[in-house]
């Protein structure tokens, strides 16, 4: 086992990783930008190294600076968290060159799933069902328009290099396709430096159901059940839960097997998530695989009683996974909500400012708060505006929803605009309580909820 690891991240996920490392008796090294010198993750770690100015590209995305901090501190491994360098195969390779263990999958597996188009082609060969569509290399506008007509409108144009819902356009008919394609390309080029797109059938009212997979370096791979992340705004998750309400065991098993097949097909090691759309027809279709720990991993931890960061660290150290598929159990229901600094009065655009007052209800077996900020801290334009994740657990979904209402009602935050009222309205909503959820839920109900 490692004696010291560096956490190449900030905020709640850095704090969460540090806590597990500490429990395992591993010393922790934080890195931070100048803006974060006084932040929670720095205070929590055993030591901290400055890696550059506030903008991410000058600090948290600077592989060289992070590797230098690892060398100087004597860390043996690097946990990348999510975002930043977590899905950067070049960084994973650079770690290996320096004799550092990257706590994540092999670079080849990151690359295999790095582009949505290539990933779909790979999954097709592995026999994993796909969202119908075109993911070819020929990017000629006429070819793409022909593919869209063949797929049948509405279609979704997606940036192949996409993430965070950027570069996505729904197209309802052939006459607007060319203009939407041009717009999607511009957006993709600006956000990812890569204008390639794929075209998919736009499913109506699907659910987003993803499978948590895990694999070790001894050839074992298993699934840790699913998460339903259908409550989204602009294709971004707001509420996540496990298990997916109403999913029958046979479908759960088939989705789990497909996800494990996907992981095996690319020689996966570590924690990964295979994202599917679940159609109204009961069919499930591969969208993409995220080759890292997900923001919403705590709901899986709450129903399985496992610590996924511990598993990541153990597997990266070469240990086999702590249990076999038939030993994985789940119990009850867990729901996570993402508390963001964003302004409801301005279409939920990210908000900035200082947190004047912040109080969460006391955590316990039924409530977990993952946060990386404290009263007095500022939410700036430089980073993700997430303030905290509130995660509730209870023996069934209805009880968990009641816990969620109570937790949100007892949360106090003053100083900047947040989505707290929206989260509370969702928790109070009868349609949410009845689990009548799909990816259009928030768009449909937003006006009523506000
Ligand atoms: P990103 O990587 O940018 O987050 P994803 O491919 O993961 O993009 O898709 C994000 C969300 O967009 C999904 O959870 C779903 O709500 C919606 N979405 C993606 N593909 C489709 C599709 N073919 N039909 C309907 N909705 C889709």
Give the secondary structure arrangement, pairings included.
Blueprint: E1 4-7, H1 11-23, E2 27-33, H2 40-44, E3 47-52, H3 63-73, E4 77-79, H4 89-97, E5 101-102, H5 107-112, H6 116-125, E6 133-134, H7 141-151, E7 155-159, E8 169-171, H8 177-192, E9 197-201, E10 207-215, E11 221-233, E12 236-242, H9 249-265, E13 270-278, E14 284-290, H10 297-304, H11 308-316, E15 333-340, E16 342-343, E17 349-350, E18 353-354, E19 357-359, E20 367-371, E21 378-379, E22 386-394, H12 397-409, E23 412-414, H13 420-428, H14 430-433, H15 441-449
Parallel strand pairs: 1-2, 1-4, 2-3, 4-5
Antiparallel strand pairs: 6-9, 7-8, 7-9, 10-11, 10-13, 11-12, 12-15, 13-14, 15-22, 16-17, 18-21, 19-23, 20-22
Helix pairs in contact: 12-13
The structure holds adenosine-5'-diphosphate.
